[in-house]
Amino acid sequence: MRAIQIASLDGPQAAKLVEVDEPDGKDAVVIDVYAAGVAFPDVLQSRGLYQYKPDLPYTPGGEVAGVVRSAPADAHVAPGDRVAGLTMLCGAMAEVVALPAERVFKLPDNVSFEAGAGLLFNDLTMHHGLR
After folding, report:
1. Rounded CA gap, 114 and 112, in Å?
2. CB–CB of 89/54 below 8 Å?
3. CB 81 within 8 A of CB 67
4. In 3D, which of 95, 114, 94, 116 has the Cα closest to residue 105?
5. Residue range 89-128, pLDDT digits in tens
6. How, if at all, do strands 104-106 and 96-99 pair?
7. Beta-carbon neighbour count of residue 99 at 10 Å?
8. With 0-12 CB in 10 A as exposed, 13-18 as middle and 19+ as buried, what is 63?
9. What is the pLDDT of residues 17-56, one digit of tens each?
10. What pLDDT shows up at residue 121?
11. pLDDT digits (tens, 9 = 90+) for 69-89
């Protein structure tokens, strides 16, 4: 599958499109990603300036929106569901992600994938900053 990776701490311009293995979806919700959020921590991480410093190379992105491909039997989402999910700080900028069910949320039909990919991380960050 394709993913964006950062292999050097030269800022966002270091991002490259690469081929990587799909994640192991065992005991996880596997999501076909339609949109990935881009947040301030992504920019800082790409320069090595964020408090969490992933090992290089890494796939950036803390939030996704897409369609569930598969899910554990006891999950609150099912294949075909539109969802938003938190990867936390890395991994969203890929064609497929696998997340624990507790970090996946159903996305209402009237919310686009693009908007959904910015709801969880970006909107909460903005809300915190304003408060």
Report:
1. 5
2. yes
3. yes
4. 116
5. 999 999 999 999 999 999 999 999 999 998 877 766 777 7
6. unpaired
7. 22
8. buried
9. 999 999 988 999 999 999 999 988 899 999 999 999 999 9
10. 73
11. 999 999 999 999 999 999 989
Radius of gyration of the chain (CA): 14
Q: Which two tokens stand for residue 55?
A: 């090992």
Token pair, residue 106, equals 């159903």
Q: Are 74 and 102 in contact (CB under 8 A)?
A: no
Contact 93, 59 (CB under 8 A): yes
**DSSP 8-state code for residue 14:** G
Strand partners, 99: 29
Tokens 């939030």 sit on residue: 63
Tokens 């192991």, located at residue: 24
Q: What is the 3-state secondary structure (H, E, C) of 86-131?
A: ECCCECCCECEEEECHHHEEECCCCCCHHHHHHHHHHHHHHHHHHC
